[in-house]
Specification:
This protein is mainly β and 213 residues long. The protein is 10% helix and 50% strand. α1 runs antiparallel to α2. This is BTB domain-containing protein.
Length: 213
Amino acid sequence: WRRAAGNWKEMKHGSQDVTASSLLGALTSNSATNYLSLPYNNDLLFSIVVDNNRKLHGEIVDDLPGAIRFPCETIALIVYPQMDQMGNPVVLLFGEACDPLTEWYCTAQLRIKCGPEDRSKGVQVVDRGVFHFGKRAHPISIQIRDSRVKRIKFELRFVTKVYESLPRFESGDITIKFKFGDTMQADKSLLALHSSYMGLSLLPYHLACSLMR
């Protein structure tokens, strides 16, 4: 379990919503939601277990105060407590790639369990379903409506994973220089394939002139 504490930022986005109205029930919906900063230190505890009962180790997110990152191979799951406009706690769950230069998407079976502060009472399932994580996927929003909820456990089983590294343009037979000094390497043949203008520009002057006649 990791504890969330500190100051919370404001986030505005749509989400996959879960409303935990009690320790025993939940309701899911999709909506565009405004979330506000929490005015107090949150005392919720979080745990994430994936696939074959493998518990992830949480770590503090330096650039997102109050959030907890749970690294999981090529991605990381982020738990980020917030507050809705009624003053109720809201917990966001979303993912990010460990390498920012990637396109990624995954589908997971998710069970959300909640429990009181007293660990001897265990945790109970409040919702389950198939949810999406990815570079362009909305966060999952867990709206807490029961003050007894102090522990939240996420159990995930990944169904599909798509992870593709983007080109870094660190090699090639030509160097492209930009206005403010940045450079990138590229292949002349690829530039010519996708741009006739670039193709002519890369040819020797006499050949380019003959082709333009």
